[in-house]
Design goal:
- By secondary structure, the chain is of the alpha+beta class.
- It has two domains: 145 residues, NADH Oxidase, CATH 3.40.109.10; 118 residues, NADH Oxidase (3-Layer(aba) Sandwich).
- The chain has ten helices and eight strands.
- The strands form two sheets. Strands 4-5-6-8-7 form a five-stranded mixed beta sheet. A three-stranded antiparallel beta sheet has the order 1-2-3, with helices on both faces.
- Strand 5 and strand 6 form a beta hairpin.
- It is globular and about 60 Å long.
- It starts with a helix and ends with a strand.
- The mean pLDDT is 94.
């Protein structure tokens, strides 16, 4: 929970401080150990070191001015199958939290990088997608003006209150902290999670049997602007990761499953249910 609270998006890095040694080794281990998503897809990770890229290819790589100074990037590829966006979000956020614990900065990127160039570096196979990447590095001492403006524009430090995110079985009545019980911290971890443009599209319902169900309140035009790359479904995976990690930290065992039949609510798309 402390790491989740500490994580923030870093867009300006110190090129004089490359990530190597034990921190890089621990990240690579985390990538290997956290590639199986809860919905059945395997994420393929790669650490792309720009120092090992040719000058010609380096010119093609870019993040449209959003990121500066990073010499290392985390790339995540998944098969073009059901649940792959959620599994990418789940597994990649686990690696990003490990980076945070190591004092290494990151920043989720889904729509602000030259996908074709990074995809060539990833060596995508048939039927694979490259939904997101993240720079990996140590934060620069001074933030650029563009970084400050982006944070302000996205209201990245603001989060919706509980009564707009978590609900009782009717999908309408806000869930109280008392009703959340031992899952209070896990829900708060979801609330604090990063999301594309800080839209916070996750909604969680606690049913009459005490089980939690995750839904997406989708902005369809926004979510599907990148075709098969459903950026708000990636956000769902991040929410699932935060919920699971903090629940287990508090001694509550369980897992996310995609149920064949789930309660429907207007404007919400069912994602998964938590089973103890």
């Amino acid at each position: 929970m402390d790491i989740i609270r500490l994580r923030q998006s870093i867009r300006t890095y110190d090129p004089a401080r490359p990530v190597g040694g034990e921190p890089r080794s621990r990240l690579e281990t985390c990538m290997r150990d956290n590639c199986a998503g809860p919905l059945g897809n395997t994420v393929r990770f790669k650490l792309l070191d720009l120092g090992e890229v040719s000058r010609d290819e380096l010119r093609r790589l870019g993040t449209y001015g959003v990121i500066r100074g990073a010499g290392l990037y985390l790339l995540g590829a998944v098969p073009d199958t059901a649940g792959s966006m959620e599994d990418l979000g789940y597994c990649m956020e686990r690696v990003i939290l490990e980076a945070t614990a190591l004092g290494v900065g990151t920043c989720w990127l889904a729509g602000t990088f030259r996908r074709g160039s990074f995809a060539r570096q990833m060596g995508l196979g048939k039927g694979e997608l490259l939904p997101a990447i993240s720079p990996i590095g140590y934060a620069a001492d001074n933030k650029r003006v563009i970084e400050k403006l982006m944070k302000r524009g996205a209201r990245s430090q603001q989060r919706k209150p509980w009564n707009q995110l978590f609900f009782a079985a009717d999908g309408w009545t806000p869930l109280t902290a008392e009703e959340a019980g031992s899952y209070g911290d896990a829900l708060e971890a979801v609330r604090l999670g990063p999301s594309a443009s800080n839209r916070q599209p996750w909604r969680i319902m606690k049913d009459g049997e005490g089980r939690f169900h995750l839904y997406l309140q989708e902005n369809r035009l926004y979510n599907r602007a990148l075709g098969k790359i459903l950026i708000q479904n990636i956000d769902m995976g991040i929410a699932m990761c935060h919920f699971a990690l903090v629940a287990r930290e508090n001694g509550v065992t369980g897992r996310w499953v995609r149920e064949a039949q789930a309660q429907e609510f207007p404007g919400w798309t069912y994602i998964a249910g938590w089973v103890e």
